[in-house]
Amino acid sequence: MIRKPSRSLSRTTKIRFAVRSGPSGIEGTGVFADAPIPGRTKIGEVTGELISIRTARKRAREGCRLCLIDVSDARALDCTGGNVLRHLNHSCRSNAFLRIMHERVEVYARRAIRSGEEITVDYGESPHSGGMKCRCGDPACRDRI
Asked: Other CB atoms closer than 10 Å to residue 61's CB: what's the count?
């Protein structure tokens, strides 16, 4: 069987606004705006390695902390080695959202985001399937991811 080589994107490109990673009150490391971000604008693109779903599941079973996003029925983005947007945390009332198009993961501001505010997305359906406690702290928290 001939395998397609995986495709990597640059770690430092694909971000349109000043953001940084840092300690999060939600979970581990988060992404924070270093300047105001207008609502309804593209923040950037999550980068990483495009891999097969089969490879993604194998990596997930290996037990290390991974950042995997399914981008199609056949491919996933392993953003473990990607840019800072790989640290986006979940919130039940997020201020940003992900849009997957043509095997690319784009991040958009749902509303205006203040400088210093953590940028969050709603993970929605995920492999956690309700098996992970949500720590977003929002009054409308669903309790499980």
From this structure: 7
Bridge partners, residue 101, by sequence: 104
40: its two tokens? 């309804």
The closest of 26, 6, 17 to 113, measured between CA atoms, is 17
Closest CA to 119 of 6, 58, 41, 60: 41
Q: What are the residue boundaries of the structural domains of the chain, listed by start?
A: 7-121
CB proximity list for 101: less than 8 A, separation 6 or greater: none
Tell which CATH architecture fits domain 7-121. Answer: Beta Complex (2.170)
Q: What is the pTM of this model?
A: 0.86
CA 121 to chain centre: 7
Task: Give the pairing type, strands 118-121 and 89-90.
Answer: parallel
pLDDT per position as a tens digit, 79-124: 999 999 999 999 999 999 999 999 999 999 999 999 999 999 998 8
